[in-house]
C-alpha cells in the first residue's frame, strides 16, 4: 500500500468520479461523493434563559429554574415576566457558524419559524396560556436533526384573571344585582311610605282648608240673615209706623234661612254619629214629590226657569221617610235653581224600574266639571268657593243628601252633562220600593188619601232665588233730586241686605249695583260721593272693587266703606290696606253706619271748604283762618288742574273741554270730580284761578290793568273789570289802591 507520502502529480480521476492518488508504495482511491453525503446532524440545546433581559440561573431569586436550563423541561412565568429570551447552540463544531435553527411555538402558532444561524429568540408579552417551544437545529450542510428539543412554557394569568378571580367577579356581580334589587324594592317601599305621608299631609291640609272655608262660609251665611233680622227689628222698633209688613217678612224669611242652616248642620252631625233613624210612613210618593215640585214652582216664578214635572207613573204607594226624601229633593232642586240661569229648564222625572224608584232632576245650567263630579258630595265642597261666586251656600247640602240617601238604602249620583245633553247636570236618586202593608192596598182608590204630612207640603223655604231678576225702586232716587244731597253708591248682591241697607240711608240719594263689576261701572259714570260695598259678591268682589276705584283717577277721590260678614281682623286689614276708608262688620248697627258715612262726608266737606277758602276772593277775614288748614296737602288732582290752568293763563281759549282732555276725563266726569273735591264747577275754578292771579299782578304797580287782563286770559278788559268787581266788591283799580294804602 502506499507509503506515508503522496507523490505530487500522481493522481487520476475515474469516470465514475472516484479519484486515485499515488504514493511511493501504491495508491489510494477516494470517492468525493461519500464525503458530501455527510449525514450527521448535531443535537441542539437551549443554553440560556433571559427574562426581562436578565439571565436566569438555577435557584436564583426569580425561582424560575431549579436545574440548569439544559435539563429543564418546563418553566412557569407570571404576567410580569413578559419578555422572554432563549439562546441555544448545537453540538456540531464542524462549522458552527453554518449551523441553522428553527423553532415552533405550539399554542401560539403551528408554523416553523426559520432563524437561519441566529441562535436566540425573544418573545414579548405572550398571553397567559400553556405553550411548547420546539427547537430544531441543522448541521453546516443544512441537514435537520431528527431530535427536537422541547421546553414547556407556562405563562400564568395575573391574579385578576384566574378562575377564582372570575368566580369572585360573578359572585360580586350577583351580589350587586341582588343588592340593587333589594334596594329598589326598599326604595319603592320608601317611596310608597313617603307618598303615603305626603297624601296624609295633603289630606290634613285639605281638611284644614275646608274647615276654614267652612268657617268663612258659615259666618257669611249666619251674619247676612242676622244683619237683616237685627237691623229690621230695630227699625221697626224705632219707627213702628213704617213699612212693618215688609220688614217682618224679611225677618221671617231670614230667620227661616238660619233655622234651615242649623237643621242641616245638626242633621249632618246626627247622621255622622249614627243617631239618625228612619221614620217610615206609607203614602203615594209620586204625589208627595209633586207637592214638593209645585212648592218650588211658586217660589221660583220670578226667576224665569221652566220647571217640568214628568212622572212616568201616576201613583206609587210605598213606605218611605217623608222628611228625608223631602230634604234630599229640596236640596237637589234648589241647587238646580241656583246653578241654572234665567230661561233655563229643570226636568224632574220619576220612573219605576223593577223594585226601585228612580227620580231624576236634570237642569240646563252651568254643569259640574268632571273633576268635581265626585267631590260635590264631599262635605263643604263647592266647585266655586271664591269670594266672587254667584251663589250662597255652605256646601253641606249634597253631603247631607248623600248620607240621607244611604240611610234609606238608595243611591244618589250625578252626571254632567247628562247623557245626550250638551250642558247641565243630572242628579239621579234611586230608592228601594218597600211594599206597603196590605190594609192600604185593600182600600178603594177613592179612599187612598195621601197621609196628612204629605199634604202639608215641604217645610223648607227655598231661599236662593226669590229675588233673582227683581230690582228695587231705590234706583230712582238718583234722579229724584239734583240738589246737594250726597249721592251714595250701594254695591250688594243680597237683595234683603240691599233693601235693609237702603232703608237705613233714606237721607241720601242712592244708586245701587249688584256686583263689583256693575259697581265700578256705576262709580265711573256717576262719580258718587261715597261707595258702600259688600265683600262676597259675584263677578268682582268688594276688595277688587275698592282697589279699582282707588286706582282709577276718575274715582280715586271717592271714599269707600266696606260692609262685610268677613269680620276677621285680617280681612279688615286687607280692606283698609287697599284704601277702604272704613270697614264695618255685619251685622252692622244702623247708627254706626250712619255716623261713619257722616264723618267721611264731613271730612270731604271740610276739604271742599278749604279749597273754596283758598280761592275765595272777597272774604279776606276768613281767608286768614285758612292757615289752620295749611297742613292739609292739596289734593293731587286739584294741584294738577291748577297747574294746567296757570300754565295756560294768558290763553283766553282755555275751557273746560280742553282741561278735561288734558286729564283724560270726559267733560262731565271732570265736572263731577272737581265738584266732589272742591265744590266748584270747572268754569268757576278756572275763573277763580285767573282772578287770583290778577290780584297778584295788581299789587305790582307797574302793570296796566289792560295788560293784567290779557295776561290772565281775559280778552275784554272791561269784562275783566266787571267780573273782578262782582267777585270782590271792588274794581281792579280800587283793589290796587286799597292794597297799596
Ligand atoms: P248648601 O246646599 O249647603 O246651601 P251648596 O248648594 O253650595 O250649599 P251642595 O248642595 O252640597 O252645596 O253642592 C255642592 C256644590 O256642587 C255646589 O256648590 C255647586 O258647586 C255644585 N252643584 C251642585 N248642584 C249643581 C248643579 N245642579 N249644577 C251645577 N253645580 C252644582
Ligand atoms: Mg245646595
What does this structure look like?
The chain is of the alpha/beta class. The protein has 22 helices and 24 strands. It has a five-stranded mixed sheet, with no helix packed on it. The chain has a five-stranded mixed sheet with strand order 14-16-17-19-18. Strand 4 (44-51) and strand 5 form a beta hairpin. Helix 2 (163-238) packs antiparallel against helix 3 and helix 5 runs antiparallel to helix 6. The radius of gyration is 59 Å and the shape is elongated. The protein starts with 5 loop residues before the first strand and ends with a helix. The model is unreliable at 439-481 and 618-630 (pLDDT under 50). The protein binds adenosine-5'-triphosphate (ATP) and magnesium ion. Residues 331, 335-336, 339, 363, 365-368, 376, 381-384, 393-399, 425 line the site of adenosine-5'-triphosphate.
Radius of gyration: 59 Å
Contiguous low-pLDDT stretches (5 residues minimum) are 439-481, 618-630
Going by helix content, strand content and strand pairing, the class is alpha/beta
Percentage of residues in DSSP E strands: 15-25%
Determine the oligomeric state from the structure.
single chain
N- to C-terminal separation? 190 Å
Ligands, deduplicated: adenosine-5'-triphosphate, magnesium ion
Shape: elongated
Mean pLDDT: 81
Amino acid at each position: 500500500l502506499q507509503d506515508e507520502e503522496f507523490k505530487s502529480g500522481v493522481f487520476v480521476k475515474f469516470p465514475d468520479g472516484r479519484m486515485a492518488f499515488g504514493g511511493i508504495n501504491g495508491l489510494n482511491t477516494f470517492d468525493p461523493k461519500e464525503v458530501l453525503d455527510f449525514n450527521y446532524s448535531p443535537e441542539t440545546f437551549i443554553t440560556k434563559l433571559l427574562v426581562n433581559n436578565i439571565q436566569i440561573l438555577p435557584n436564583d431569586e426569580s425561582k424560575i429554574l431549579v436545574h440548569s436550563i439544559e435539563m429543564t423541561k418546563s418553566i412557569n412565568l407570571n404576567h410580569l415576566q413578559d419578555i422572554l429570551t432563549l439562546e441555544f447552540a448545537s453540538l456540531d463544531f464542524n462549522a458552527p457558524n453554518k449551523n441553522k435553527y428553527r423553532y415552533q411555538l405550539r399554542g401560539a402558532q403551528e408554523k416553523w419559524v426559520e432563524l437561519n444561524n441566529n441562535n436566540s429568540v425573544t418573545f414579548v408579552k405572550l398571553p397567559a396560556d400553556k405553550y411548547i417551544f420546539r427547537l430544531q437545529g441543522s448541521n453546516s450542510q443544512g441537514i435537520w436533526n431528527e431530535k427536537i428539543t422541547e421546553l414547556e412554557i407556562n405563562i400564568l394569568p395575573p391574579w385578576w384573571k384566574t378562575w377564582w378571580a372570575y368566580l369572585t367577579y360573578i359572585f360580586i356581580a350577583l351580589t350587586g344585582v341582588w343588592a340593587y334589587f333589594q334596594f329598589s324594592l326598599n326604595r319603592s317601599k320608601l317611596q310608597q311610605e313617603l307618598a303615603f305621608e305626603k297624601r296624609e299631609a295633603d289630606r290634613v291640609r285639605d281638611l284644614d282648608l275646608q274647615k276654614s272655608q267652612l268657617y268663612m262660609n258659615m259666618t257669611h251665611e249666619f251674619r247676612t240673615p242676622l244683619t237683616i233680622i237685627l237691623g229690621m227689628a230695630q227699625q221697626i222698633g224705632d219707627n213702628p209706623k213704617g213699612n212693618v209688613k215688609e220688614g217682618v217678612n224679611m225677618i221671617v224669611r231670614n230667620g227661616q234661612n238660619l233655622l234651615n242652616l242649623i237643621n242641616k248642620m245638626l242633621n249632618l252631625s246626627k247622621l255622622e254619629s249614627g243617631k239618625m233613624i228612619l221614620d217610615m210612613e206609607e203614602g203615594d210618593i209620586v204625589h208627595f214629590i209633586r207637592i214638593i215640585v209645585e212648592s218650588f214652582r211658586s217660589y221660583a216664578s220670578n226667576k224665569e226657569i221652566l220647571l217640568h214635572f214628568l212622572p212616568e207613573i201616576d201613583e206609587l204607594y210605598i213606605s218611605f221617610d217623608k222628611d228625608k226624601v223631602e230634604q234630599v229633593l229640596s236640596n237637589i232642586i234648589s241647587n238646580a235653581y241656583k246653578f241654572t240661569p234665567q230661561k233655563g229648564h229643570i226636568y224632574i222625572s220619576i220612573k219605576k224600574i223593577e223594585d226601585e224608584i228612580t227620580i231624576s232632576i236634570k237642569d240646563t245650567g252651568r254643569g259640574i266639571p268632571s273633576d268635581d263630579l265626585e267631590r260635590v258630595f264631599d262635605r263643604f265642597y263647592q266647585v266655586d268657593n271664591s269670594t266672587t261666586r254667584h251663589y250662597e251656600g255652605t256646601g253641606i247640602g249634597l253631603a247631607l243628601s248623600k248620607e240621607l240617601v244611604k240611610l234609606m238604602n238608595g243611591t244618589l249620583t250625578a252626571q254632567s252633562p247628562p247623557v245626550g245633553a250638551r250642558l247641565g247636570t243630572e242628579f239621579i236618586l234611586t230608592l228601594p220600593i218597600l211594599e206597603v202593608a196590605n190594609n192600604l192596598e185593600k182600600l178603594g182608590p177613592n179612599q187612598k188619601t195621601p197621609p196628612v204630612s204629605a199634604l202639608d207640603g215641604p217645610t223648607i223655604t227655598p231661599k236662593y232665588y226669590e229675588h233673582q231678576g227683581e230690582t228695587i225702586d231705590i234706583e230712582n232716587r238718583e234722579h229724584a233730586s239734583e240738589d246737594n244731597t250726597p249721592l251714595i253708591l250701594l254695591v250688594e248682591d243680597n237683595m234683603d241686605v240691599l233693601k235693609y241697607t237702603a232703608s237705613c240711608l233714606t237721607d241720601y240719594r242712592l244708586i245701587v249695583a249688584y256686583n263689583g263689576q256693575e259697581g265700578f261701572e256705576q262709580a265711573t259714570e256717576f262719580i258718587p260721593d261715597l261707595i258702600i260695598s259688600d265683600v262676597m259678591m259675584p263677578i268682582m268682589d268688594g276688595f277688587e272693587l275698592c282697589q279699582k276705584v282707588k286706582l282709577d283717577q276718575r274715582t280715586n277721590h271717592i271714599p269707600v266703606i266696606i260692609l262685610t260678614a268677613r269680620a276677621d281682623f285680617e280681612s279688615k286689614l286687607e280692606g283698609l290696606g287697599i284704601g277702604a276708608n272704613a270697614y264695618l262688620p255685619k251685622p252692622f248697627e244702623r247708627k254706626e253706619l250712619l255716623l261713619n258715612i257722616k264723618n267721611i262726608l264731613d271730612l270731604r266737606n271740610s276739604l271742599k271748604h278749604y279749597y273754596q277758602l283758598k280761592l275765595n276772593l272777597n272774604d279776606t277775614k276768613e281767608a286768614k283762618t285758612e292757615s289752620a288748614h295749611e297742613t292739609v296737602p292739596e289734593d293731587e288732582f286739584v294741584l294738577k288742574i291748577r297747574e294746567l290752568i296757570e300754565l295756560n293763563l294768558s290763553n283766553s281759549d282755555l275751557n273746560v273741554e280742553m282741561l278735561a282732555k288734558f286729564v283724560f276725563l270726559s267733560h262731565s266726569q271732570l265736572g263731577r270730580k272737581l265738584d266732589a273735591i272742591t265744590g266748584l264747577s270747572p268754569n268757576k275754578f278756572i275763573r277763580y284761578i285767573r282772578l287770583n292771579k290778577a290780584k297778584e299782578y295788581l299789587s305790582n304797580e307797574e302793570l296796566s290793568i289792560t295788560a293784567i287782563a290779557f295776561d290772565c286770559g281775559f280778552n275784554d278788559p272791561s269784562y275783566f273789570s266787571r267780573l273782578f268787581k262782582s267777585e270782590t266788591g271792588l274794581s281792579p283799580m280800587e283793589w290796587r289802591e286799597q292794597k297799596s294804602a
